[in-house]
Every structure is written in structure tokens, then in C-alpha cells.
Specification:
Elements lengths: L8 E4 L20 E6 L2 H5 L5 H20 L3 E5 L10 H12 L3 E5 L4 H14 L3 E4 L8 H8 L7 H12 L3 E2 L2 E2 L30 H13 L16 H19 L19 H6 L4 H13 L5 H25 L18 H4 L5 H13 L4 H15 L3 H11 L5 H12 L16 H7 L20 H12 L1 H4 L6 H9 L2 H16 L10
Parallel strand pairs: 1-2, 1-4, 2-3, 4-5
Antiparallel strand pairs: 6-7
Helix pairs in contact: 2-7, 3-4, 6-11, 8-11, 10-11, 11-16, 13-14, 14-18, 15-16, 18-21
The structure holds flavin-adenine dinucleotide (FAD), ligand DLZ and iron/sulfur cluster.
Length: about 525
């Protein structure tokens, strides 16, 4: 029997690092490198993740391990049901160090402060060098973002985005932006109608690996939210690329026009549904942006769509990550409005007669995905208006969405949606009455509530809650110039009308249970 080669370096690869060209693997010798992949109970339960999300991550991990082995790598893979598993990243790295006696450890930086803390302790704990590599799947490193942010009074995403355009050369003509404008968002706010041709994402039937994972998740996580029936997400890089091809062929041209639209029963509209794959590492963000630009240059997609898409990725996605790491581990506890309400139980059951909420929640509970404007202007808006504790809202988003990891979920939820940081990410809260939802969707026409009424039986709850939110938080918001028109309207309302509005909101708030509060 030949002696197995000595292990020079152990490379732990996490569930959101499923990229073949990960920085911790650059230039390694396949004969003396051991890749460690760990399914661990701590990661599956640190929040009560949606069961579809766990199934997606574990299946994608198992497929990635197969692909790595086929590419000549040695992979040490620990399954969730391993009877000797310690259940944690650190415990599994310790066991793997004992198995392989590596000279050193190399790892790509993680997506959460929580895991960064674990990695920082490994060198002392294991007594061997631990190199934590920059995650070069992102365009801006932490140092790049800090350099951009330093000395600025306000961290305006639009200016960061322009820098990223210059840096990547995407949609640039020399120093000038393509089309002589940086941003075509004004053209991107069209409501959609159901008779338009609807592109559909691909559906991938579970193979034996995925089926095994689905059985495991059903058995191990009966108390986690979300369904597993009809699981059809991509779980390999090839499948994710096929979904990207479908998006570019069918949906990219109208992506911009209908970016903010919502329609009953239409779960995907012209969105890409690629965020789970991007965030797990099955797709590369810059590749997708270059592909989008190629669609524009070939005349197959208009500039407003392509610019909008590229802005979401090199703008918002990179900016959110920059904010997460810059603001530090305490960011999660910011609570500008000092809100304490727990989320109502219907966030976990979908049992509400508000049609907009039901559409967003049913889809989320079934598929673990909802598009941006549903997350922001329906479920997020409602949580903000009722005064939910932003930490609880953050936990709900982190557990429920298939693309949620703290680096991206936290700034979107606590920052952008709940204004928990007091306006670091936006100059005013994303709060809206039923009018906004009605303008961008067909929901209100199908709702038992009347979107045109603020008070009285059957009035849309969003309307009274919106004004109550402004009145309740007057001391914190009246000075905001972007809300001066709203406060002028409130001031002009007859006192009796103001009182009736607040009473209507109070009665809605009193009807809410707080039973759905997550327990961690
Ligand atoms: P598309 O509409 O096709 O957009 C294209 C891509 O742009 C997405 O795939 C995504 O990678 C990127 N993108 C767009 N907006 C954002 C954004 N605000 N932040 C980061 N990337 C963005 N996105 C996540 O990836 N993970 C999250 O946990 C997450 N939580 C959110 C929570 C709230 C409250 C809100 C308002 C938004 C959140 N988003 C999150 C952003 C956005 O909703 C999702 O990226 C998008 O819905 C994913 O679907 P898609 O791939 O079809 O996106
Ligand atoms: C989200 C998640 C889940 C549910 N399970 C695992 C797992 O078993 N093993 C793993 O390596 N990663 C998992 N992940 C993703 C990690 O939580 C993620 O890598 C860290 O939060 C760092 O971003
Ligand atoms: Fe939602 Fe109000 Fe419209 Fe009903 S009427 S769908 S509750 S915004």
C-alpha cells in the first residue's frame, strides 16, 4: 500500500463558499491539500432556517464536494448525521486536524462576524499557522470599502456605485457612463399587468443526492418553518448557469421596466432568481455583470434594464457587504426607534387577510424567496409600521430567505428596511401607505380591505398605520427634510381626523398577537 501524502494544508470550505476558484485554494497542490467540508448542526440551527434553505445548502455542498473530487482534490466531508460530529465548525476543524495532522490551515474569510470570531481563535487553539484569505469573489475588499467611506459625511450608495463602475469598466465609455447617465431608475418603476408574457425560472428535479438531503431535513428539522414540497432549486454550478442563461434570454430585457412591480400569483416576474446561487458561490457576480453588459452591447437588452441589473450587483450587493463589515458586530443591536413589538404569528403561517401580506408570506413560506419590493414594501414596511423590534425582524429575514447570510441580510433588513441605524443607508425610512402598494401591484383590487380608506370598517391597515408611524416617531422624524411634505399633510388634517386615524391604528395594533416571536 503506498503511504498517503502528508497533509500540508487543511482548507475548510463553508456552505457559502462553493466556488472552485476560492481564494484559499489558489495555487494549492492537490496532492498535499485536504479540503474540509462540514455539515454542522450549529449552522443549521443558529437561527431556525427555512427547511428549503437548509436543503439547498446541504445539497449544493454535497454536489460541490463531488465536483471537487472529480477535479482531483482530496475532500474530507462530514455529514450532518455523523455520530461523532461535534456539531460546530471549530469542533469539526479540531477533529480534522487530528485526522490529517496538517502543517497549517488556510481559509477564505467568512460572511459573518460570528464565524470570523471562531476562525480568529483557531491559530492559538490548534497551535499551527492559520491564514485567513480575502474573499476575492467580492469586487471591493474591506480595505477598499473603508478607503471609499473614510471622511465621507454620508455613505451614499450611488457614489460608491459610480466608483465601482469606473473600477470595473462596466458600461463605461472611457471615463463617461454609457448613455451619458449613471442611473436609469426613473424608467424602472412601471406597474405590470398579468397579460404580459411572463418568463419562468427553470425547475430542477431532485436527483438522488438532493432526495437524500430532503429526507434528512424533513426528519431533522420538523419545527423549522417552510415547506420542502416541490423543491426545484439548482444545486450545482451547471444548473445555476442554466438558470442564468434562461434569465438573460427571457427576462433581462424587461428586468428594469418591472423591477418594482408586484402581481398576484406571479412570484418571479422579470427577476433573475439567482441570489441563492450568487451568495452560495455557484455563480460569480462579475461574470453575471459582464454577461449583462454583453446582452446590451449585442442589442438584445435595453440600457435601463442592464444598468439596473448591474447596479443591484456591483452597487447594492457590494455596498451592503461593505456596510456590514464597517459597522462591526454591534450593528445588529441598533434600534433607532426603540421598537419592542414582536412579529405577529402570521409571519410564520401566512394567515392574514391583508392580501399583499398573504401573497408575500405564502410565497416566502413555500419557496424561501420573494422579490425585493415584496421584502421591502410589503413585509418590511408592515413590520416597520407596527413598530416591530428590528432585531426580531432581522432574525426572521435571516431564517426565512434562501439567499440570507448575515453580511447581506442584516444591512438590508435592520438598515434599509427598518431604519434601525437611524439613516446610515437611506435618507428616510422605507415606510409607505397602501397607496404605494396599490400603485405597484394588483393586490388591492383583490383584498378585503379598501385601499382608499384610512378609517372605519374595512379600511386598509397600511393607511392608518402609516400616519400613526409618523405621529408616533415625530420627535425623531419631523426634522427630516424628505418628510416635511408628509408632516405638513398631517398637520393640516382636522384634529378629529387625526384622532380617528390613530384610534384606527391602535385598534389594528391591539388585534395583533406577538406569539410568533422567535425563541433562540
Ligand atoms: P434580482 O431582482 O434579479 O436582482 C439581481 C441581483 O442583485 C440579485 O440576485 C442580488 O444578488 C442583487 N441585489 C439586488 N438588490 C440587492 C440588495 N438590496 N442587496 C444585496 N444584493 C442585491 N438579498 C440577498 O441576497 N440576501 C438577503 O438576505 C437579502 N435580504 C433582504 C432583506 C430585505 C428586507 C430587503 C428589502 C432586501 C433583501 N435582499 C437580500 C435584496 C433583494 O431582495 C434580493 O437580493 C433579491 O430579491 C434576490 O432575488 P433575485 O436574485 O431575483 O434578484
Ligand atoms: C446557512 C448554512 C447552513 C444552514 N448549514 C451549513 C452547514 O451545515 N455547513 C456549512 O459549512 N455552512 C452552512 N451554512 C452556511 C454558513 O452558516 C455560512 O458559511 C456562515 O454563516 C458564514 O457566512
Ligand atoms: Fe395590502 Fe391594503 Fe392593498 Fe389590502 S388594501 S392589499 S392590505 S395595501
Amino acid at each position: 500500500m503506498p503511504t498517503p501524502p502528508a497533509c500540508d494544508v487543511l482548507v475548510p470550505v463553508l456552505g457559502d463558499q462553493l466556488s472552485p476558484d476560492l481564494s484559499s485554494l489558489h495555487g494549492r497542490d492537490r496532492a498535499t491539500t485536504v479540503i474540509l467540508m462540514m455539515e454542522v448542526v450549529d449552522e443549521t440551527t443558529y437561527v431556525r432556517h427555512h427547511r428549503r434553505k437548509i436543503a439547498f445548502i446541504l445539497s449544493a455542498m454535497r454536489h460541490h464536494a463531488e465536483a471537487l473530487r472529480a477535479d482531483g482534490w482530496i475532500v474530507d466531508y462530514v455529514e450532518l448525521d455523523d455520530p461523532d460530529s461535534t456539531g460546530s465548525f471549530t469542533g469539526e476543524v479540531a477533529r480534522s486536524v487530528a485526522r490529517h495532522a496538517p502543517a497549517r490551515i488556510a481559509v477564505t474569510e467568512p460572511g459573518e462576524w460570528r464565524v470570523r470570531g471562531m476562525m480568529d481563535a483557531w491559530e492559538t487553539m490548534f497551535g499551527i499557522p492559520v491564514a485567513i484569505h480575502t474573499d476575492d469573489r467580492f469586487i471591493a475588499s474591506h480595505a477598499d470599502f473603508d478607503a471609499w467611506a473614510e471622511g465621507r459625511k454620508q455613505l451614499v450608495m450611488e457614489f460608491f456605485y459610480r466608483d465601482m463602475r469606473r473600477r470595473t469598466g462596466l458600461l463605461m465609455n472611457g471615463r463617461e457612463p454609457e448613455g451619458d447617465r449613471w442611473n436609469f431608475d426613473k424608467e424602472n418603476r412601471k406597474p405590470a399587468t398579468a397579460d404580459l408574457f411572463m418568463p419562468r425560472p427553470l425547475s430542477f428535479a431532485p436527483d438522488a443526492i438532493t432526495q437524500g438531503v430532503l429526507d434528512l431535513v424533513a426528519a431533522r428539522f420538523p419545527d423549522h418553518p417552510g415547506g420542502l414540497d416541490g423543491f426545484d432549486y439548482a444545486v450545482t454550478a451547471d444548473q445555476a448557469r442554466a438558470q442564468a442563461d434562461t434569465f438573460f434570454a427571457n427576462a433581462m430585457p424587461k428586468f428594469g421596466d418591472y423591477e418594482d412591480a408586484m402581481l398576484t400569483g406571479q412570484r418571479h416576474l422579470w427577476h433573475s432568481i439567482l441570489s441563492p446561487y450568487l451568495n452560495a458561490g455557484l455563480l460569480n457576480p462579475l461574470d453575471l455583470c459582464r454577461r449583462a453588459e454583453a446582452e446590451y452591447r449585442a442589442g438584445r437588452a435595453p440600457l435601463n434594464s442592464v444598468e439596473g441589473y448591474i447596479r443591484q450587483i456591483i452597487g447594492w450587493r457590494e455596498y451592503m457587504r461593505g456596510i456590514y463589515w464597517r459597522e462591526g458586530p454591534d450593528y445588529v443591536h441598533r434600534n433607532f426607534f426603540e421598537n419592542t413589538r414582536k412579529l405577529p404569528a402570521f409571519y410564520w403561517t401566512g394567515e392574514t387577510d391583508m392580501h399583499c401580506m398573504k401573497e408575500a408570506l405564502d410565497q416566502t413560506l413555500e419557496t424561501a424567496h420573494a422579490h425585493h419590493i415584496q421584502r421591502l414594501m410589503v413585509t418590511g414596511n408592515y413590520a416597520l409600521l407596527i413598530g416591530a423590534d428590528p432585531f426580531d425582524v432581522h432574525l426572521w429575514y435571516l431564517e426565512i430567505y434562501i439567499d440570507a447570510y448575515e453580511w447581506v441580510s442584516l444591512p438590508n433588513t435592520l438598515g434599509m428596511s427598518q431604519f434601525g441605524d437611524g439613516g446610515l443607508l437611506g435618507s428616510k425610512p422605507y415606510a409607505g401607505s397602501g397607496k404605494y402598494i396599490d400603485r405597484m401591484s394588483d393586490y388591492c383590487g383583490r383584498c378585503r380591505y379598501d385601499v382608499f380608506r384610512r378609517t372605519g370598517e374595512g379600511a386598509c391597515p397600511f393607511n392608518s398605520l402609516y400616519w400613526d408611524f409618523l405621529a408616533r416617531n415625530e420627535d425623531k422624524l419631523r426634522g427630516n427634510r424628505r418628510l416635511s411634505m408628509q408632516y405638513r399633510t398631517w398637520d393640516k388634517m382636522a384634529p378629529a381626523e387625526r384622532a380617528a386615524t390613530r384610534a384606527q391604528a391602535a385598534s389594528h395594533l391591539a388585534s395583533l398577537d406577538e406569539a410568533g416571536a422567535p425563541v433562540y
